[in-house]
Design goal:
Length: 457
């Protein structure tokens, strides 16, 4: 079919998200159209779980037992790579990082839950480690790959690309090419030529889509290898539509049960919020066209209605308790793009029940479709980047006009998103488990593979 080839060649010409969005919408429509009955079948499979039938039917995942050079060696030798060194300390506790203790900060128990047990100093790039640990505890694992609906490839792609920042392209591409060969030679590959394979990375998609083989170009070319073009990649930010999907950045909160999540949601809903809005971030004067300067200016001019935490000068931005304190104290949280359109801060602020304000559709709406309500006006405010740039809009005036009822209903939506964007502890399994970011992702991957199985795309 034409659609099968279209994305590949078009991506090279038009590598923009806008295009991708249109394309994905198109495909989704076609799929929804063609597969209404498929959805119904999926529901039936899930429902039949209580009876004597196999509760995992259609949900089995096989984990490839990769040689350690593709994962464990990378983090074991973390300290050996200059580029990774300051990340190494965050690898502990399944990639959640060191635990936050009550004594770390005077406000800890006032800001976080009184039991600080679910809180960690989580680094934003640890998702591949976290996800693999979660996958090891997934309830429907199988060692029999003929039974599996999907195949998980526990490759630490982000650690691999990061360790060779600035080195020559040969070195940067080596391990990915090695893995491609390894995968292609497995019997599991022949089943669907990789269409049922997926992997997760804690870095942004563009790090893996280098456009040429010049050393000066960014990243490696992992996602341009033919084998990886057949696989599904989950990452914290995508810039391609064909086989990449965005999943939430990890937050600091990793509870072990639904009870802990509910308790937190309750706490969030009762918070008194001192500021109308806040901006936590650094100015980017060197970044042409960045609206952060204007946002900072407006925030500082608001006479106390806006809280600005300047990450350019203050160390507090590395301090989860301080960050969460600001988000909890604010009704709205401004999320302007930085180096890339998405921000980890979006997820931390949602966790704190703060209503996000976006300036670019690629910051969230075009990204986390598996996670956020389709109608973005339900949980967020959108102000166009252009209007801010042209000085056409006063953020304060705009936000002050939002009614109490609207704020209440938006915050309600934000609170409902919380369980879906957190990564609970790996041991959180069984019937009472939280439908967290991991669970949502695995379900969507399984659904995607099942669509391939009907061999339409
Ligand atoms: C907590 O407050 C006490 C007294 O105000 C102060 O001496 C101490 O340094 C503070 N600790 C931290 C971690 O901020
Ligand atoms: C798969 O095999 C390994 C090694 O024999 C074993 O430790 C693991 O429990 C098995 N997993 C499943 C889901 O059967
Ligand atoms: C990718 O999938 C297509 C179609 O399923 C197949 O023809 C092709 O050989 C696969 N590529 C690799 C490298 O296996």
């Amino acid at each position: 079919m034409v659609r099968k080839r279209a994305p590949k060649s078009l991506i090279e010409i038009l590598p923009t998200l806008v295009f991708c969005t249109l394309f994905v919408l198109h495909i989704n429509q076609i799929l929804t159209h063609l597969f209404l009955s498929d959805k119904e079948t999926l529901n039936i499979t899930v429902k039949s779980t209580q009876g004597g039938t196999d509760t995992c039917a259609g949900r089995y995942v096989y984990i490839h037992n990769l040689p350690s050079r593709f994962n464990d060696d990378l983090i074991e030798n973390c300290e050996a790579y200059i580029e990774l060194r300051n990340k190494c300390k965050y690898l502990v506790n399944s990639g959640f990082g060191p635990r936050i203790s009550e004594d770390d900060h005077n406000h800890t128990t006032r800001v976080l839950t009184t039991e600080t047990d679910p809180w960690y100093y989580t680094n934003q790039f640890m998702l591949e480690v976290i996800f693999r640990e979660k996958m090891k505890h997934y309830e429907c694992l199988t060692n029999d790959s003929s039974l599996s609906s999907a195949v998980f490839v526990p490759f630490y792609a982000g650690f691999d690309v990061r360790r060779f920042w600035g080195y020559n392209v040969k070195l940067r591409d080596e391990l990915g090419e090695d893995l491609a060969r390894w995968l292609r030679d497995r019997p599991e590959w022949r089943k669907m030529y990789g269409r049922d394979h997926f992997f997760v990375t804690g870095r942004v998609g563009r790090d893996f889509r280098r456009v040429s083989d010049q050393d000066s170009d960014w990243g490696n070319k992992l996602m341009r290898l033919p084998e990886f073009e057949n696989m599904t990649m989950l990452s914290i930010e995508t810039n391609s539509c064909s086989n990449e999907f965005a999943v939430p950045y990890p937050t600091y909160f990793h509870p072990k049960s639904g009870v802990e999540v509910k308790r937190w949601q309750m706490q969030v809903s009762m918070m008194q919020r001192r500021y109308l809005f806040s901006f936590v971030g650094a100015n980017r004067p060197e970044l042409e066209g960045s609206i952060r300067g204007e946002i900072t200016r407006q925030c500082l001019a608001s006479e106390g209605r806006c809280k600005f935490l300047d990450c350019g000068t203050s160390k507090d931005c590395g301090e989860p308790v301080k960050l969460m304190e600001v988000f909890q104290d604010s009704v709205f949280c401004l999320q302007p793009p930085g180096d890339t359109p998405t921000r980890r801060s979006t997820f931390d602020s949602i966790l704190a029940g703060c209503i996000p304000v976006f300036f670019n559709r690629d910051s969230a709406y075009n990204q986390y479709k598996w996670y956020f309500p389709k109608d973005h006006t339900k949980y967020s405010v959108y102000i166009s980047e252009e209007d801010v740039k042209n000085g056409k809009v006063s953020i304060e005036k705009l936000l002050v006009k939002v009614s109490e009822e609207k704020i209440f209903s938006m915050r309600n939506e934000v609170e409902k998103i919380i369980p879906k964007i957190i990564y609970t502890k790996p041991e959180d399994v069984g019937p009472e488990k939280v439908e967290d970011a991991f669970q949502v992702a695995v379900d969507r991957v399984l659904k995607r593979v099942s669509l391939f199985k009907t061999s339409i795309i």
